[in-house]
Amino acid sequence: MTALSVNLNKIALIRNSREGNYPSIIEHAQLCIDQGADGITVHPRPDQRHIRPDDVRQLATLLNGNPNVEFNIEGNPFAPAFADYPGFIPLVEETRPHQCTLVPDDDDQLTSDHGFDLTSSGETLAPIIQRLKSQGMRVSLFMDPDLEQIRLASQIGADRIELYTGPYAAAWGSSNMANIFQQHLAAAELATELGMGVNAGHDLNLDNLKQFASIPNLLEVSIGHAFTVDSLAMGMGNAVLAYKALLA
Is 74 a catalytic residue? Predict the structure, then answer.
């Protein structure tokens, strides 16, 4: 069964709109875990618009006590230190998640909206990947469903890819949806042939997830925005159960 990793960024965004620690990231992570979530994902950015470094540290402590729940930290490997943000790689090396998903975004982006172009960044990424792997972390690269790029991801040592599913979600219900789904299917099949695991994420929801999860050997989906919206309507525990049912 495909694993569900819940992205808690939007819970942190709500928390940051007021002083204090309400809603609590840790309490909501535990709620998701109690209802069967397979993992917790966060994306700490230098501008700290949502998840903050201390959230990452506290989640690392929580998940060290839950060995069957994956901790996935995603972000730009080139993000530097800024104020009390220590830089992405130093934060990851401090907290040692089970999986580190490298994403080519920056502070000017509203959200992650494209995968790596490894023809330009692959040579720089390769030693970072090896550095993280040497510390026991699985490394995944955020990728578009481009077959040439998938091959390059394998060549530089990625353990997994995370397919960027934004275009698939945007095309849902349109005449182009089948074509875009086939692109993701072909990319996933190639990654599997090359010995990499396949994750996916971005704008997956209760409407479009079931078809995407039909891709063979899809190991994990990371869902945050739609999951948080659905949690407002049905409660977070019920949202976990609804998404897990689609992945069963």
Answer: yes
Q: What tokens were used for 34?
A: 């109690």
pTM above 0.85, yes or no: yes
> CATH class for domain 3-247?
alpha beta
- Do residues 39 and 6 lie in contact, with contact meaning Cβ atoms separated by under 8 Å? yes
Q: Is 43 a catalytic residue?
A: yes
| C-alpha count within 13 angstroms, C-beta hemisphere, residue 184 | 30
When pLDDT is averaged across residues 102-114 and rounded to a whole number, the result is 73
Q: Annotated catalytic residue: which of 28, 50, 184, 202?
A: 202
Q: Are the C-beta atoms of residues 70 and 101 closer than 8 Å to each other? A: no
Q: Check whether 32 has a pLDDT greater than 90.
A: yes
pLDDT of res. 65 = 83
Q: How far is CA 102 from the centre of its chain?
A: 9
Q: How far apart are CA 88 and CA 53, in angstroms?
A: 9
Catalytic residue among 43, 50, 162, 220: 43
Per domain, the residue ranges of the chain are 3-247
pLDDT of 110 reads: 55
Q: Is 93 a catalytic residue?
A: no
